[in-house]
Design goal:
alpha+beta; 9 helices
Length: 348
Amino acid sequence: MQSDRALLALLIASAALTSTIASAADAPQAENEVTRFLARLSVHPPQSHRGLTLFPLELSTAEDEADYATLDEAFRRGLVRVSDTGVVAQVTMANVSGRDWVLALAGEVILGGKQNRMLRDDVLLPPSSGPVVVPTYCVEQGRWLGADHAKFEAGRTLSNYALRQQAMAGAPQAKVWEQVEAEQRRFRVESATRDYDAVANSPAVARELADYRAAYVRIWRPRLVGVVVAQGNQIVAADVFCNAPLFARERDKLLDSYAFDCVNRYERIRPTLQQQDARDFMARIYSARFGVQGSPGAGRGLRFHGAGVEGAALLNRGAVIHLHAAPGYRLLPPPPHPPIPIEPRPQQ
C-alpha cells in the first residue's frame, strides 16, 4: 500500500512539471492550424543562465514527421543553390535535391554573392523546386563586388535576436545597418566592410556563446520542439517546430541568437519568471487575430497579432512547420556597463 501511495505521489509530481498551454486560455475564437498545434504543447519549468531564461516546449505527438533539412545541412550536402540577383533586397534559392525538403529560417545569414545577406522570411523549398525569389537584407554594408549571379554559401549563423526583429518587423534597410553597426560598437569588433559576420564569429563572442550552450545541455530532452525565451525578466519570443529532430538541429543556432543579446547585459538581474508566465504568453495567441500571408517558397504563412502577441507560422500540408511569436518587436537598450573587450577579427 505504501508503495502504491509513493507511486501515485510520483505521478502527480511528474505531471506538475509540465503544463498545457490550452488550459491557460479561453476557447479560441476560431480554430485553425495554429490553435490546434498549441493545444498539444506543454511548457516545462524554466532554466536560467546569465540573464537568459528558457522554457522548453514539448509536443504530445509530432505535427509533421518529415525529415526537413536545415539550410546549413542543405548547403553541406549540396541540396540548395543560392544566387545573387544584383538587387540588395533579394536572392534566388533553388532546391536541387529530388527528395529532400529544405527549411531556411528568417534571420539566417548567407555569405558571398555581391555582399552578405540575411533572410527576411522563413522559406520552405520542396524537392526539385526551381529558383524562387527570397527577400533579404544586407548585413555587409561596405562591399558590392562580384557577378550578378554570384553564389552564396552557408553562414552557419542565425543573426542575433535584436537583428532578427528588424527583419520580422519589415524594417527599412538603413535600420538593419544601424543594428549591425551597434553590435560592432558594443563588442568592439572592427570590419572594413561593416560585416555582421565579423561580429558573430569573432573569437571572444564564440567563447561567450559556448558558455551558454554548455549551461543548457542538461535541459534538452528527446520530445522537445521549441522554447519560450526571456531576456532579463521579460519574455521576448517563442520558437516552435513541427517535430523534435528538426528542433534539435536548429536549437544551438537559436540559443546563440538569443544569448548574443544577453552577454554583459542582464547578468545582474535575478530571474523571477515562472512556468505560468510562459504558459500565459503562449495562450495569448488563442485570442489574436489571424490572417493568411504569402510565402516565398512552398506552403503558406498564417500571421497573428493582438492580445499582446504577434508572430507568424509557416504551414505546409496542414501542419505548422515553424511558429515564431513575440510580445512586440523592440530594440534592446545598451549594456549597463562598458562592453567586454573583444579583439578585432583579422580581415581576410
